[in-house]
Amino acid sequence: MSSSEDMKRAIQRAREAFQCGTTLSIDFRKRQLKALKRMYEENEAAFCSALAQDLKKPKQEAILLELNLLKDDITYILSRMDDWIKPEKIAPTIMTMFDQPLVYHDPYGVVLVLGAWNYPVQLALLPVSGAIAAGNCVIIKPSEVSPATAETIAKLLPKYLDKECYHVICGGIPETTELLKERFDYIFYTGSTAVGKIVRDAANKNLTPVTLELGGKSPVYIDDSVDMEVAVRRILWGKCINLGQTCIAPDYILCSKQLQDKFVEVARRVLEEWYGTNPKASPDLCRVINEKHVDRLSEYLKEGTVAVGGEVDREQLYIAPTILTDVSPKSKVMTDEIFGPILPIISVESAYEAISFINARDAPLTCYVFSTSSKQQQTFAQQVLSGSMCFNDCVVHFSSE
After folding, report:
1. Residue 3: its pLDDT value, please?
2. What is the pLDDT of residues 38-62, one digit of tens each?
3. What b/e readout covers 86-105, taking b as 16+ CB neighbours within 10 angstroms?
């Protein structure tokens, strides 16, 4: 835990370092980014061990969806950084026709990054790379819900990055509350909408700009043109990585009753192929983050017919990949963000009924459309307002640069 005085000192040191111009040097920023990348490369085992402790995250998931993403992001930033930073020439107007107007891209100052527990390395440190590249000092607050990872970040980061410019603050809600009382020049938060509103309200007191990366529901529509074997594998992969604790995981399925029966049949076989007859014993499945979330997810199992899965082991923080049918659109599993391995299916008779169903609710974070018809794809793209849209695949679009 970090005391209030420790936090204030860390923020003050970061502010003094920024005011001294330490981070304005492009060479300094590049050295810090290369050091951060080296931290990931040299401590892969430590990060994988921490993720296994917090989420029982398989090594391949930890590397593919956390560490490799962070390393690739830094590689990309370093390849583009010079172009991003240099002054940008803009077209003169009649008032400036004899001048040479330029836009300079200046850093904000001291940035607060509030990480999330579901991808606790990636979501705490991915924004840090961009903040460093832009010339900011950074205060990093990893999620207390993933304590092993938070401790690992706090232990390793000072060994690689400048100790005056970049600080890690550990702790829970009291520490986050204290941090939000301080003045920052930018805040980046990843997490729930409810906490996002608290962060926004705190930022408003100082008119601090914020980025809020929040959750939401991500529907999947399937029509009868698809290869169901391929569709099921892609949808289940998107649902089962991190045991469904991914903000853009498929949240529910919309399809005809006939396709529902076919989906369930194929899904049962695919899940057994991937995880065996006893998925709880599989080394390839994560665990629910804590008992509170096991209890929350267990309640959803009562809101439909369990067609596949349904096993719960609270002590082991385990819920089997589960498919629910006969679900009411008004049930909590259909109004809450599920954030777990439960996949409800709602029957619809057409794409237009699916679109009406989606649009009658809050705008989706992502919409997944499984159809080989370009006309059908275009209809969804034009008529569904969502944060993103992906055709015939799940989750992979997040890796786009």
Report:
1. 79
2. 999 999 999 999 999 999 999 999 9
3. eeeeeeeeeeeeeeeeeeee
Q: State yes or no: is 213 an active-site residue.
A: yes
Which distant-in-sequence residues (6+ apart) come within 8 Å of 23 by Cβ?
17, 29, 107, 132, 135, 136, 137, 165
Whether the predicted model's global pTM rises above the 0.85 cut: yes
- 48, 165, 240, 247: the catalytic one is 247
Q: Are 15 and 139 in contact (CB under 8 A)?
A: no
Name the one residue in this structure whose structure tokens are 């990309």. Answer: 76
Q: Is 303 a catalytic residue?
A: no
What domains can be seen in the chain, in order of their start residue?
Answer: 4-213 (3.40.605.10), 219-399 (3.40.309.10)
Name the amino acid, one letter, at 331.
Answer: S
DSSP, collapsed to helix, strand or coil, labels residue 190 as: strand
- What pLDDT digit, counting tens, does each position of 259-286 carry? 999 999 999 999 999 999 999 999 999 9
Task: Give the distance, in angstroms, between the CA of residue 90 and the centroid of all CA atoms in the same chain.
Answer: 35
Tokens of 306: 């369990």
**Tokens describing residue 208:** 């601090």
Indicate the pairing of strand 137-141 with strand 166-168: parallel
Q: Measured between alpha carbons, how far is 383 from 87 in angstroms, rounded to an integer?
A: 39
Closest by CA to 312, choosing from 328, 325, 331, 293, is: 293
Active-site residue identified among 16, 178, 213, 303: 213
